[in-house]
Each structure stands twice: as C-alpha cells, then as structure tokens.
Input
Amino acid sequence: VTRFVRAGGGSAVSDLGEQGLLDRIAARLDGPPRGEIWAGDDGAVIVAPGAGLVWTTDVLVEGADFDLAWSLGGDIGYKAVAVNASDLAAMGAAPSHALAALSLPASTPLVFVDALLDGMVEAAGALGLALVGGDLSSASEIALCVSMLGAPGPAVPVLRSGALQGDALCVTGRLGGAAGGLAALRAGARPGGDPTSDRLIERQLRPRPRVGEGMALAGAGASAMIDVSDGLLLDLARLMAASGTGCQVDPRAVPVDRDLEAVSRTAHAPPIDPARLAATGGEDFELLFSIEGGALDRARAALEPHGTPMTVIGEVTSGAPRFGQEELSSMEELGWDHLRNP
Ligand SMILES: [Mg+2]
Output
C-alpha cells in the first residue's frame, strides 16, 4: 500500500482546477431519485425524509483531527461521514443526506482526493445515506466539513436533557479502543503490523457509529443520550449538565476495550493505562444513555439484533455528578477539549 505523502508524485489537484475536480467528484456520486437534484446546481433539492429533521455538522482539520503521518485519504473521508452519523445516532435519528465542503492545498495529489472520496462513498453506502453535493476551496491544510440530515425515528428525538433522577446510566460497547489506537500510532505502530494494534487502529481511523443502536434505544425508551466522542467523563458531564441532574458512576463498571491490555505487549507498545483511557479517551463513538430501570431489559433486547452489548455504569441522582468518590467538577482530566488541550 502506498501511503500518502505530500511530496508524492503523479497529478495534483492544480492540474485539474476547481471545475475539473468538481466534475471528477460528481462522477463518483450516485444520481438522485426522481424529484431530487443533487450535485451540479447552486443547491441540492431533496424530499424531506420525515415530518421533522435532525441536522448536524462536524469538521475534520489536518493537525487537529487527523495526522497525515498515519491517516490515508480513505480513512479521513470515512471518518468525516461516520462522526456526523454518530451525532444523528445519539438523537435516535436515521442519517439520510450529506453535503461536504473540502479545503485543500492545490498541490494535493489527485490520488489522495480520489481515496478521500472512496472513504466517503464507502461510509455513506454502509450507513445508507446519500452524498448530495458540496464545495471546494484552497487552504494550507486539509479540512473536510460534512453536514448531515437525518429523520428522527417513530419516537421523538432523544435529547441530552431528558435524564431523570433514578434512571440507570448505560453505555454501548466497550471504551478506550480508539484512544488506544491513537496511542499505538503515536508510538510508531502502523496498520498491517500486530493484529491487536490493528484492531485498535481501525477503531481510531474508521469508527463505526451506532446508528441502528441509537434508533433502537430511542424506541426502547432512552430518556437522554449522547455519543461518546470526547471521552466518557466529559460527555457524561455534558449529559448531566443538560439534564440538570447528577450521577453516581462506578469506575469498575466501565467496560474497557479488551485489546488495551494486550497492546502493551506488542512491538510498538504505547504507554497507556487502560482504565484511564476508557474513562477519558475520546472517539469511541459509543452511545451513553439514561433509561428507567424497568426498561433495561427492553433496551438490551433492542440492541441484541445489532450484536451490541450494553453495560450499566451507574445511576442518575439529584446530587453532583460523581465518578466513584470523585466529583467530576474537581477532576483534572475528563476528556478531549479542542480549544483547551495543547
Ligand atoms: Mg455528539
């Protein structure tokens, strides 16, 4: 596999120009159904997928959100679509349409843009949504901004603000894997090396948003929900603040990614503390939700067809948000803050 390097040979974006590149991208997109207009006009025309819409946007910026030392174009395209779908999943909504705005240096190799598009098309196909157009501009770094529409399921959208005192707090899947993958990459591991670090790296580079699970949990009666994008404790603090409640979370109950112990025995062993990564590492894109205790079996049954486990990690309370003995507000590190972390 030839990994992308900025000095790589072959044609660059500047050889095609803006219109040439737009045409090249448009040729990769599906055609619209009758009654809709996608790429090619000033705006896309779509038939609203439901009575209401959920609308989100998320931007990936070189340096801040991805590193070209280990991210291929395809990884970046895939992740840009996936992280938007994850925000819709956290509302219990089904992603339907996406627009993408791409800024890049004119010297960027065309093979990189082709791979980026491959990743976007792959993620859109896997998630059952349509890429309906976008825009291009030049910049000194690569940035890919996706905006995505979705339809809420039969249940109303699940908000962050609905947690009630006495509800159980739960999380899907296992945590810390994506942060472990990033730590492995930083320690020099690369895809195709050790199978253990490979799986963690996959979680970091190509996250799988819990779209079906989000809709299933909305139907099962989740009272509040958020996707774990910036770290369990930080997203927990957000959920509690929005709901105006506190919580008591048991640190021993947090489901830790099983490969985090094993990765410390690989060739490029990253210096990690598995329990700490599970609590504060970001980008797992699991769902953190609250639900009435009596509905836990219903939630488990709703997740079963997706093969996704859930774990009760604590309870919503009227006090302060607490993680074991500690109050979240007094803890040094909760997770990832774009505008605070160095
Ligand atoms: Mg989110």
Notes: Residues 1-7 have pLDDT under 50 and may be disordered.
